[in-house]
Design goal:
single chain, alpha+beta
Length: about 210
Amino acid sequence: MSDETQKIEETTTNVTESTVAEVSTAGVQAHNPRFGGNRGDARKNDRKPRREPRAKPEFDQKILAIRRVTRVSSGGRRFSFSVAIVVGNRKGMVGVGTGKAGDTSLAIDKAVRDAKKHSIVVRTTKSMSIPHEIKAKFKSAVVHIQPARGKGIIAGSSVRDVIELAGLKDINAKLRSPSKNKLNSAQATIKALLSLKMPKVSMKKEAGDVK
């Protein structure tokens, strides 16, 4: 075999090997998502369906306080968690509840169920404010609430949480007691909102309907 023929065969072999390498590399890149390729038909069938968006819960909630409490028994000290929470739908319904359990998540669930069980419907005006001035006392907490047109919500501590979750607007609230217990303040606010009377306009309409 001559030298020229041998050179031609070596050149052909090199070209063939490089072409095969390029084709195999292109095939890997085409099926590899890292190189912008497709996953392939087999991978398409394995895709999981998209999850449906979770429905927004009816009640919003706000934790007022979480305390670790201790109970002394014959076997020693037993620790648990006590939770106070406010729930409301921001449409006139609000409630305060408490729960106690060995785990914080269980205590929160108990408190939410208790708050929903003891929720109230607030008598509001068309503008989601209160019709008149109210005042209430629960244990050592005293709260004073009055309508404040165009002022927004002027309140603090747990009183503001109850008012916001109830969906009320244009209200001025003041805590008139030295107590800093948030649960008592929230309960006093609920008691005050319970004492609301129907607006005079609506009362006249109801009387006219009865006639």
